[in-house]
Specification:
The complex is a heterodimer. Helices cover 0% and strands 54% of the residues of chain A. Chain A has no helices and eleven strands. In chain A, the strands form two sheets. In chain A, strands 2, 4, 5, 9, 10 and 11 form a six-stranded mixed β-sheet that branches. A five-stranded antiparallel β-sheet of chain A has the order 1-3-8-7-6, with no helix packed on it. In chain A, strand 6 and strand 7 form a beta hairpin. In chain B, a hairpin with a 5-residue loop joins strand 5 and strand 6. Classes of the chains: A mainly beta, B mainly beta. At the A-B interface, strand 4, strand 5 and strand 9 of A face strand 5, strand 9 and strand 10 of B.
């Protein structure tokens, strides 16, 4: 079945630093979604991407849908303490209802 | 917009009893809802896809007779864990797909502890 490889698994950074994480797949996806999950909560949708090459921003967050349709990245600029959490990528193949999730990237910020 | 609620947020039950978890889309209609299970420090594991008015589609390895799913309306889906056992203890999260889009919005999750 489809799998998403998300990296890095964890990041320890200083407040104010930029962050970059990515997801790759051996399968082609026609939708990429990025979520953030806080402890004990459900994931919150950050950015949705629908076209190859699409670059979308949401405040300090920027995500891109890879040209090959097999990868996506998420950048966070000028990190702040509330950015702490687990970030998940998710993809959907053509015609499917369900999402395939990456393993998550745990972000820790040192003040 | 796109708010999904779950009830209860946490529940403790005794082994052998059944527990029902509700998932509601509060400000949009959801033709499709999904139920996930999440273990500590792990990603979300899809259990089943629920389409309004039809039977749920279960993922491989998920017992449909143990995890009963009902999606009777465009705003409500329920998951019933029947004859719960300690190994069913987990964080259960639902999501709802807004009709006409490909975006899934998640509920806040339900922490189930079976003693």
């Amino acid at each position: 079945g489809q799998q998403l490889n998300q990296s890095p698994q964890s990041m320890f950074i200083q407040e104010g630093e930029d962050v970059s994480m990515n997801c790759t797949s051996s399968s082609i996806f026609n939708t990429w979604l990025w979520y953030k999950q806080d402890p004990g909560e459900g994931p919150v949708l950050l950015i949705a991407l629908y076209k190859a090459g699409e670059l979308t921003s949401n405040g300090r967050l920027t995500a891109q849908f890879g040209i090959t349709r097999k990868d996506s990245f998420l950048n966070i600029s000028a990190s702040i303490p509330s950015d702490v959490g687990i970030y998940f990528c998710a993809g959907r193949i053509q015609g499917a209802q369900k999402l395939v999730f990456g393993q998550g990237t745990r972000l820790t910020i040192n003040p | 917009g796109a708010v999904v609620s779950q009830h209860p947020s946490w529940v403790i039950c005794k082994s052998g009893t059944s527990v029902k978890i509700e998932c509601r889309s509060l400000d949009f209609q959801a033709t499709t809802m999904f139920w996930y299970r999440q273990f500590p420090k792990q990603s979300l594991m899809l259990m089943a896809t629920s389409n309004e008015g039809s039977k749920a589609t279960y993922e491989q390895g998920v017992e449909k007779d143990k995890f009963l799913i009902n999606h009777a309306s465009l705003t409500l889906s329920t998951l019933t864990v029947t004859s719960a056992h300690p190994e069913d203890s987990s964080f259960y999260i639902c999501s709802a797909a807004r009709s006409g889009t490909q975006e899934q919005y998640f509920g806040p999750g339900t922490r189930l502890t079976v003693t």
